Automatic annotation (TrEMBL):
Transmembrane segments: none annotated. This is C2H2-type domain-containing protein. Residues 65-85 are annotated as: Disordered. It comes from the Eukaryota. It comes from Pectinophora gossypiella. GO terms for biological process: ERAD pathway.
């Protein structure tokens, strides 16, 4: 499990100065890198990667955000009432920020 988790985040990058999830870098400073990891674009790409999808570019992410903000409230309410198994799975997978595991000795531990 740890190997799979590190493969998702590192993806072969050993210098730690690039984001293999979004395909950006190298970062000029630690603060720039931290700001990237806190950005909604990085979070969106990380969730896509967990579902086996490819990352989206920053331009595409911004255009989708603009499209989402231009939708009226009545459309979003109607959308919430429909049952979509993929969106329910996505909501369940992203509801908690940590994963729980049990080792052979029966001890439970979690990873944030």
């Amino acid at each position: 499990v740890i190997k799979r988790l590190s493969a998702l985040t590192l993806n072969g990058a050993s210098d730690g100065n690039c984001c293999s999830c979004c395909g950006v870098g190298p970062f000029e400073s630690r603060s720039q890198q931290t700001a990237h990891y806190k950005h909604h674009w990085h979070t969106h790409n990380l969730k896509r990667k967990l579902f086996g999808k490819s990352p989206v570019t920053y331009a595409l992410f911004n255009s989708r955000q603009e499209d989402d903000s231009s939708v009226s409230g009545s459309d979003s309410e109607a959308e919430e009432n429909t049952s979509n198994p993929a969106s329910e799975l996505f909501a369940a997978a992203t509801r908690h920020c940590k994963a729980f595991f049990t080792n052979h000795a029966g001890q439970v531990f979690c990873i944030y």
